[in-house]
Amino acid sequence: MKDIEQLNHCIIEFYDKLSSWEQSVVKELHLSLAQVHTIEVLGNHNAMRMRELADKLGITTGTLTVQVDKLVNTGFIERQPHHSDRRSILVKLTESGQNIYKQHNDLHLALTQDITAKLDEDDTAVLLKLFKKINCEF
């Protein structure tokens, strides 16, 4: 039981450090963390229906609508009709949104490189395998 408690504390410490880092990076963009997460999901998955995007973010479509409205007003996201379903609206990144996504993704990549710099290839492979397993649980 002691190991699970230590693991719990390590996960919490890592989450706190990552959240703090994320907040500091997002502050420089003058966007909320929720807005940047919306941009990240669209950057990773391209144009999506609102329901799909809300599901990926783990929020309601009502909450997402507020986020999307703000991001449309900033010029980072645009709405467009779905090509085969007239009832659906797709949201996608604009060129400015794609630039924000790339900039933020590059920062994440640099952080990942910094975090894993002292790991050898085998440790990195094990870490990747474990994160994939953990992510399947969510």
Strand adjacency order, main sheet: 1-3-2
Number of helices: 6
Q: Please name the fourth-level CATH homologous superfamily.
A: Winged helix-like DNA-binding domain superfamily/Winged helix DNA-binding domain
Radius of gyration, in Å, reads 18 Å
CATH topology: Arc Repressor Mutant, subunit A
Structural class: mainly alpha
User: Beta fraction of the residues?
Assistant: 5-15%
Please report the first level of CATH classification, the CATH class.
Answer: Mainly Alpha
Q: Sheet with the most strands? A: 3 strands, antiparallel
Number of strands: 3
Instruction: Give the count of structural domains.
Output: 1
One letter per element, helices H and strands E, the order comes to HHEHHEEHH
Poorly predicted residue ranges: none
In one word, what is the shape? elongated
First-residue to last-residue Cα separation? 23 Å
CATH architecture tag: Orthogonal Bundle
Highlighted features:
Arc Repressor Mutant, subunit A, about 70% helix, 6 helices, mainly alpha, 3 strands
Mind explaining what this structure looks like?
There is one protein chain. The protein has helices spanning 2-29, 33-45, 50-57, 61-74, 95-115, 121-136; strands at 48-49, 77-81, 89-93. By secondary structure, it is mostly helical. It has a 3-stranded antiparallel beta sheet. The longest helix is centred in the first third of the chain and has 28 residues, at 2-29.
